[in-house]
Inverse folding.
């Protein structure tokens, strides 16, 4: 089946896990308490969502208890919880870090080269990450390889649903079908996480597993590659 559109994950796929875990998450944790205290009015709705989710998960907290909510959010960072309010907040906090030059987003060179090539070939490129859409835009606009944001036609985050749920990919595919007239079977989802690939396949997308730091399995559950430059071996219709 011809590939007519690429949907890609970020952490572990275009970019290293270490940049997210060892640079972005610690920066967010360090600056979160002061940021939330300074912006608690504007963040009221986000803090209410945090309180509701925490309470649902058995850790009741009042939506006006700023200090308790800060602790919940810090614990979620430590646990790498993909909670939408946390992801939105992280995006807001990371903006200052990117703009001050405290860091630039890591890109695997093969990912940058392939994304540039596919864009030049007019293959629509989309991102689906647990990071908020705002965080994704900052990430690619301030990458080690320069401003890559213009390469992408659009972005999806956990507002569309969790990345391990097939329904999320059905929603994304339906929207892209409406926008581009491309069927789910002509879309290729790239990720480093098997459960995300399983969910995408269940929604009818084609899948490729980026296995960056370990040997490829003999019979992987999804077509597996160590680098974007190996994708054309599995998907010969890719430009
Ligand atoms: C896009 S900004 C940092 C990424 C992030 O916060 C995250 O949780 C990574 O999730 P992904 O779905 O890209 O693996
Ligand atoms: Mg990932």
């Amino acid at each position: 089946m011809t590939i007519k559109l690429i949907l890609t994950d970020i952490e572990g796929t275009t970019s290293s896990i270490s940049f997210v875990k060892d640079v972005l998450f610690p920066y967010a944790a360090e600056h979160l308490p002061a940021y939330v205290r300074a912006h608690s009015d504007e963040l009221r709705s986000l803090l209410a969502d945090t309180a509701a989710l925490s309470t649902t998960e058995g850790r009741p907290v009042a939506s006006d208890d700023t200090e308790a909510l800060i602790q919940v959010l810090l614990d979620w960072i430590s646990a790498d919880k993909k909670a939408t309010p946390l992801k939105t907040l992280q995006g807001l906090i990371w903006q200052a870090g990117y703009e001050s030059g405290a860091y630039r987003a890591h890109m695997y060179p093969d990912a940058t080269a392939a994304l540039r090539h596919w864009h030049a070939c007019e293959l629509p490129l989309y991102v689906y990450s647990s990071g908020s859409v705002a965080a994704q835009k900052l990430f690619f606009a301030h990458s080690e390889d320069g401003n890559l944001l213009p390469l992408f036609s659009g972005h999806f985050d956990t507002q569309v649903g969790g990345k391990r749920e097939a329904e999320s990919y059905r929603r994304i595919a339906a929207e892209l079908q409406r926008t581009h007239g491309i069927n789910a079977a002509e879309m290729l989802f790239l990720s480093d996480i098997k459960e995300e690939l399983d969910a995408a396949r269940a929604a009818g997308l084609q899948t490729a597993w980026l296995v960056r730091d370990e040997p490829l399995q003999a019979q992987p559950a999804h077509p597996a590659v160590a680098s974007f430059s190996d994708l054309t071996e599995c998907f010969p219709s890719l430009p």
About this structure: The pocket of magnesium ion (ligand 2) is lined by residues 9, 11-13, 191-193 (CB under 6 Å). The chain has nine helices and six strands. The radius of gyration is 18 Å.
